[in-house]
Amino acid sequence: MKIPLIRDSQGIRKITHREAARLKGFPDSFILAETDRQWLYRKIIYSGNLSVIRQAAGALAYILADNPWRSRQASQAFRFEELFGRYLSRLEEKNADVSGVEKLAEHHVHHADFEIRYGNESLYFEIKWYKGNVLPRLNIIRACQRLTPLKSEGIPILVIANEVPQSQKIQCEKEFGVHIWDVSNLLWIFEAFPDIKAEFIASLDFSVEHIEPEPPVPAITAGKPEKKAEELSWKERLLRIPPGKKHFTEYEQICIEILKYVFGDYLTLWASQEKSGGGLYRFDLCCKIKSGIEQDFFDTIMHYFNTKYIVFEFKNYSEKITQKEIYTTEKYLYEKALRKIAVIISRAGADEHAQQAAKGSLREYGKLIICLSDNSLLEMIDIKEHGEREPAEFLEAILDDLLVHLEK
After folding, report:
1. How far is CA 173 from CA 4, 138, 179, in A?
2. Is this model's pTM higher than 0.90 or not?
3. For every residue of 42-54, which 3-state class applies, written as one string?
4. CB–CB of 184/214 below 8 Å?
5. What value does the mean pLDDT take over residues 90-105?
6. Which of 151, 264, 165, 155 is nearest to 218 (CA)?
7. For the chain, N or C: smaller number of CB within 10 Å?
């Protein structure tokens, strides 16, 4: 490589390493430690230009911030891909026939996200996230067309978190040589990993109550379902977190995990640390009630409280919460935003004054604030585990008690 030349007041000379680095956007504090100075020139010249990268990233950030739909789509797609990657890694541990799980780079020649070895075959997975339970047929066709070249190297599989008719799966396999794993197949394969299944269901924006899990083609088994150590350890993990501001993040995180497990069938979005419109207040979590829910509690709050969104607040206090927390949370709720329900989760629940304040908010403004404790969370986990009733019935009983005993 020829070293770049520049002309200055002294005439023509070689550009210095530091000058080249500055042109590439490196700060002067960056240490140029390469001992081979000739090789250092080449490394700097072939490096990315930080100024250009910064401008491109800034433009993308602006687009995403200015476009909530695109921002949410990108976020959900990334989480779904990461979740499926975790499944493949866990599958490799349990199935001796699965090996070589690899996350393919974006610029890879193949239009696929993952590659694995299953027996003597290579399986290529393309992960797609679309909103809603049914997507246009054309979207599936286009995705299959891009995967068709992989037939010569292995088995291409399109993984989508939506419902696809069996007839269309057969058609795509016949015309393009591409297998499709839809939401029914994902529910089947995730059954062996309860924590992954719970997170997957919680991420969907539609109900899966009517969907019957079905084995995919090709069917890759993971043996017997894992013992639900995650659920069984929640009580220990929850009670091990000390009260106090220092451990608030840990408490919030485990509470959200539990909520996804017990209410993942009913809620989606899971937007944490959201600011109110004017930026004056910040609530910990906001969830959206899924479409097509057939459950009495959620049906009641949607139709009689005009609510589509539920605010969750987490208080890692050693003592019971007071009326102060009720009045603060009350400010987040108003009808125009379809947000008139809040759930406050704290270590010891609410004191008598807080309960009276919650009743007053319901009586005067029609705002429903439900106070739960650690014991409430553990009881709902127990209900979910036994499967005889639904965890939402626990909230339903609280609502019944509030309304029955509400005085004028």
Report:
1. 55, 15, 5
2. no
3. HHHHHCCCHHHHH
4. yes
5. 89
6. 155
7. C
How crowded is the C-beta side of 89, counted as CA atoms within 13 Å? Answer: 9
Closest CA relative to residue 188, chosen from 153, 162, 219: 219
Phi, psi at 309, each rounded to 5°: -125, 145
Would you identify the CATH topology of the domain 69-203? Trna Endonuclease; Chain: A, domain 1 (3.40.1350)
pLDDT in tens, 17-35: 999 999 998 888 888 877 7
Question: How do the domains of the chain map onto residue ranges?
Answer: 5-63, 69-203, 229-404
Angle at 51 between CA 49 and CA 53, to 5 degrees: 70
Q: Which of 364, 309, 313, 319 is nearest to 340 (CA)?
A: 309
How confident is the model over 380-384, as a mean pLDDT? 91
CA dist 287 → 202, 267, 282, 307, 342 (Å): 10, 6, 14, 11, 10
Strand locations in 246-376 (E): 267-275, 282-289, 309-315, 341-346, 368-372
229-404 has the same fold as 69-203: no
Total Cβ atoms within 10 A of residue 214: 17
Supply φ then ψ for residue 117, to 5 degrees: -105, 125
Asked if 313 contacts 343 with a C-beta cutoff of 8 angstroms, the reply is: yes
Indicate if the pLDDT at residue 181 is higher than 90. Answer: yes
Q: What is the mean pLDDT of residues 149-160?
A: 93
**CA-wise closest residue to 161 among 92, 91, 208:** 208
**Residue 218: is the preceding peptide bond cis (ω within 30°)?**
yes
Provide the edge-to-edge strand list for the sheet that holds 368-372.
Answer: 267-275, 282-289, 309-315, 341-346, 368-372
Closest to 24 measured CA to CA, from 40, 8, 13, 12: 40
The yes-or-no verdict on residue 351 having pLDDT over 70 is yes
> Any idea which residue has 């911030």 for tokens?
65
For 253-283, how does the pLDDT look when each residue is reduced to its tens digit (9 = 90+)?
Answer: 999 999 999 999 999 989 887 655 555 557 7
pLDDT > 50? residue 64: yes
- Residue 221 or residue 299, greater confidence: 299
d(C-alpha 17, C-alpha 15), whole Å = 7
Task: Please give the CATH number for the structural domain made up of 229-404.
Answer: 3.40.91
